[in-house]
Specification:
heterodimer; A: 2 domains; 3 helices; about 40% helix; B: mainly alpha; two-stranded antiparallel sheet; 11 helices
Chain lengths: ~200, ~230
């Protein structure tokens, strides 16, 4: 009898602690979720605005989203967000959240900003798991490699040039890391190809 | 608790019973994030905060928890604390969270925290548990920063790179390059470098301790001679 009583008391105590713990966590969650979403939104907006200046558009770029799926050209099985910038209802640019699926260590998530005429307004890496000290030079805070995409397009350079130097192209690789820049160059080129094929439907 | 006891707790946390050097606890986060000084400092401070919070809470409830369910209760407390810290930081210190965010879930895997709950906080008063958590955390932070400095220096040839992520724009100048045109030494940055570096640090600590012991022996032998 005593053993059973002890077990029940222990179980009830443990249950009470679980309920208290859950209560505090959900209370914090309830009180922070709004702020966290606001922070995330602002952080993303900041990156989007680095690529497309706030002067160049007058719509709410954050909510003017189209979702598309194209595993071959955008690198992800999941729907990809396309942020659209417009001024006076005229298309200005899109920012495509595409993925380079063949990084050294898995997916590299990109933001590729393309002006209406097909010229790159810029590229940024949002998320990656590349080797620290080697592949992570793709981050804008670590080197200026990623900024060199600005003003390039499908015709500048020609298709042959869209590769790292080791493969006969025009892009620098990093010492000790060729796979990472190769993956990004390929993904940006594919994103541009996608844009060319679907440009007008993207702004609808 | 008397002052001498606090002194002992502080000494224990920082040196004698250092979580990383002596107890060899929390190696997973230690080895994963000690590639630069700033990363090490970030994880160290977040761990210290968790240690203090969990030690205080475990100490507060130490009379109500039955021994047979204490471990699950500690796990609950630590997991809730870490989650609450993570959510609050994300909400109110978003910039800092962007840098430390990836380390915070790693803190749950740090067995140093549950070890302190079990070995110290569950048996001692709230105030001494707080001091214990604080100095165990600072001792851990010191090792992280030292290891981070070693690896950053050998691996990148710099110190304090990306300090601005933690201390704001004004700290951009903190970072300095020791060797110009240093090509980097990859081994130091990758996980094996962390193991080798930690091994060296532990060896150095043991040498220092041995020397101290030897000196203490000599001193006591001399006293014996003088008085004898």
């Amino acid at each position: 009898m005593n053993i059973v009583r002890n077990m029940i008391i222990s179980a009830v105590l443990l249950g009470l602690f679980a309920i208290t713990g859950t209560f505090f966590v959900s209370y914090t969650h309830e009180n922070t979720i709004e702020r966290i979403n606001k922070n995330k939104r602002q952080a993303l907006l900041k990156t989007l605005h680095v690529l497309i200046s706030p002067k160049d558009h007058d719509n709410d770029i954050f909510t003017d989203i189209k979702k598309v799926t194209n595993k071959d050209l955008l690198g992800s099985k999941k729907p990809v967000n396309i942020y659209r910038a417009r001024k006076n209802n005229n298309p200005v640019a899109v920012i495509i959240n595409s993925t380079a699926p063949d990084g050294y260590n898995g997916n590299i998530e990109l933001l590729v900003a393309i002006r209406y005429n097909g010229e790159l307004a810029g590229v940024r890496v949002v998320q990656h798991k590349e080797t620290p000290g080697l592949g992570d030079a793709i981050e804008e805070t670590r080197s200026d490699w990623i900024t060199k995409f600005k003003h390039l397009s499908l015709t500048n350079p020609e298709k042959k040039g869209w590769a790292v130097k080791r493969d006969g192209g025009e892009f620098d690789q990093f010492t000790g890391a060729t796979i990472t820049p190769r993956a990004i160059v390929k993904a940006v080129h594919k994103t541009l190809t996608y844009y060319k094929k679907h440009r007008d439907s993207l702004y609808e | 608790m008397s002052d001498t006891n606090y002194k002992q707790i502080i000494n224990n946390g920082l040196w004698v019973n250092n979580a990383a050097f002596v107890q060899l606890l929390g190696l997973c986060p230690l080895l994963a994030v000690s590639n630069t000084v700033i990363n090490g400092l970030g994880l160290g401070l977040a761990t210290t905060l968790t240690l203090v919070a969990s030690n205080v809470m475990v100490s507060l409830i130490r009379h109500w928890v039955r021994p047979e369910i204490r471990i699950p209760v500690f796990v609950l407390i630590i997991a809730s604390t870490v989650t609450i810290i993570e959510l609050s930081m994300n909400a109110w210190f978003h910039e800092l969270y962007n840098i430390l965010g990836i380390f915070i879930p790693l803190i749950v895997t740090n067995c140093a925290i549950i070890a302190r709950a079990e070995a110290f906080a569950s048996k001692n008063s709230v105030s001494s548990s707080l001091i214990d958590g604080l100095f165990m955390g600072l001792g851990f932070t010191a090792v992280l920063v030292t290891l981070g400095a070693m690896r950053e220096l050998i691996g990148f040839g710099t110190l304090f790179q990306q300090a601005h992520l933690m201390f704001g724009e004004a700290a951009r100048d903190f970072s300095f390059t020791l060797f110009e045109n240093y090509r980097g030494y990859l081994l130091a940055i990758l996980p094996p470098g962390a193991f080798i570096g930690l091994g060296f640090l532990i060896a150095i600590k043991n040498i220092i301790d041995k020397k101290h012991q030897a000196r203490d022996k000599v001193v006591s032998a001399e006293t014996v001679e003088v008085t004898g």
